[in-house]
Amino acid sequence: MLSIGSTGRSEDLVGLLLECHERIRRFSTMAVEVGRRSDLPAAEVLEAARRCERYFRVALPLHVADEEVSVEPRLDGLDAAVDAALETMEEQHRAHEPLLRELLEALVAVQEAPADAGGRRRLHAVAVRLKAEFDEHLALEERTIFPAIRERLPAAIQQEIVGELRGRRGGSTAAPSG
Known about the structure:
Elements: H1 13-36, H2 42-75, H3 80-112, H4 117-152, H5 155-168
Helix pairs in contact: 1-2, 1-4, 2-3, 2-5, 3-4
């Protein structure tokens, strides 16, 4: 249940963004499972809820900034279909915010009372809804925006963006955690 780790270390921009997407999927699934499974020991529930909260509170906003601050301005205006996808991406980011707040509240409640079935049901309900929204959102980016990065942005610009992603995370040479 708690095995969330790096899927590898990519050095190219799209690879790094895909690794971030994999983490979004993994932590979303973990939140769903923590809420759904009544067979988990309290210590495991507590640790999984703590890790999910940290991911969604700290790392996910970094990934959103990667897309909106570093990627979007460089792709904007290059292609009408990509522009539409970028607009949808930003709209979806805003639409996720209330559900993310609800998820964070549920994760905190589960940490405070890991054995409370009602709190776990609340976590499950919001996590399922958010996971479905994320699945649609990530598919859009992977189908339209990521190919545009590879096709439309020169390697030097992509490397510049990689530097921005790393800088957003304190200049770490490790793969971005978003």
